[in-house]
Amino acid sequence: MSEDEKVSATGKRIGRVAREYATQQAKEAAQKREQELTEPTTTGSDPAIPPRGTPIIEVTDIGKSYGRVIALRDVTTSVKAGEVTCVLGDNGAGKSTFIKILAGAHQHTEGKFVVDGEERHLSSPRDALGLGIATVYQDLAVVPLMPVWRNFFLGSEPVKGIWPARRLDVEFMKKTTRTELLAMGIDLRDVDQPIGTLSGGERQCVAIARAVYFGARVLILDEPTAALGVKQSGVVLKYIAKARDRGLGVVFITHNPHHAYPVGDRFMLLRRGRSMGDFPKAELTVQDLTSMMAGGAELESLAHELERTMGSSNEMVAELKAEVEGDAQ
After folding, report:
1. On the CB side of 133, how many CA atoms lie within 13 Å of its CA?
2. How far from chain centre, in Å, is Cα 3?
3. Which of 25-39, 105-119, 167-181 has the lowest average pLDDT?
4. According to the model, what pLDDT value does residue 142 have?
């Protein structure tokens, strides 16, 4: 056999081995995709969702200081599987600081932060995600002109094939997006439509379903109904209840007690960086929540001030005094 024939034969053998390897890789990838479609969405490395009522996160006297500025102090509450913990407070109450600690964006400087019975000091949001703690912020981190399925897998796109022919597994992403949204009760007309064409409530629900799919056990929602109308707020509250019914622990951040009370199981109120208490639903009414957030003393002082300037016969003054008297009773 000549030298050229030897080289040709060697090239053929290498080509045959490469084709066999590519075929085997394709079969394994197809089997893996089929397994992902038939098994639960959490992987073996994701922490499992504990039984309903089991504490996942417990914070005790937690606080955060920036030098000599105290942003949060003496906050105690828990987040349990299958329950909604509502964190209420007016602007500047410390809600954002609190969720940043839970999400791993900031480290606490006081108190204890316990996850699954073990004290933790999270150094980044990636640490929180590794423990199954996902945060959905008000801006949602979506690209309005991209389809729903692209936004669902944004930053975590599955691929198929081997290099150099590796490409996005579009079929898997579309099918999974449709399946996961249906599991949350969201029936979209078409997952190919740009997410910017959805309503504000529907975009919030896509973000919630995305967090659940990628292994969230605790779902932190930062003011999800703040910029929504009455109908769309109701849609979001329905999907918060859906997430709770699937066994997730939900932290619902809001300044609206009328949104929190229908879905909440526990209520933690913040004012000026301090906790006013952590209450189960059985101990409070929506009127109690409203009064505690507004501050009875502040309302009474405002009523007296308006009475001096506008007169006791003014309709607004009368309504405010009646509300203060009702709270006192």
Report:
1. 24
2. 66
3. 25-39
4. 84
| Residue 215 placed within a domain | yes
Please report whether residue 47 resides in a domain.
no
207: how many CB neighbours lie within 10 A of its CB? 24
Band (pLDDT 50/70/90 cuts) for residue 225 is: confident
222 inside domain: yes
pLDDT of 38 = 47
Q: How many domains does the chain have?
A: 3
- The residue range of the domain holding 35 is 1-39
Q: Which residues contact 23 (CB under 8 A, 6 or more apart)?
A: none
Q: Which residue has the tokens 């410390």?
A: 94
**80 with 163, same domain?**
yes
Pairing of strands 84-88, 249-254: parallel
Residue 50 lies inside a defined structural domain of this protein: no
Residues 117 and 194 in one domain: yes
Q: For residues 300 and 296, give the distance between their C-alpha atoms in angstroms, rounded to a whole number.
A: 6
pLDDT confidence bin for 42, thresholds 50/70/90: very low
Closest CA to 151 of 208, 219, 94, 107: 208
Is residue 41 predicted with pLDDT exceeding 70?
A: no
pLDDT digits (tens, 9 = 90+) for 192-212: 999 998 888 888 888 888 988
CATH number, position 226? 3.40.50.300
Q: Please, are residues 290 and 282 in contact by the beta-carbon 8 Å criterion?
A: no
Closest CA to 135 of 96, 174, 82: 96
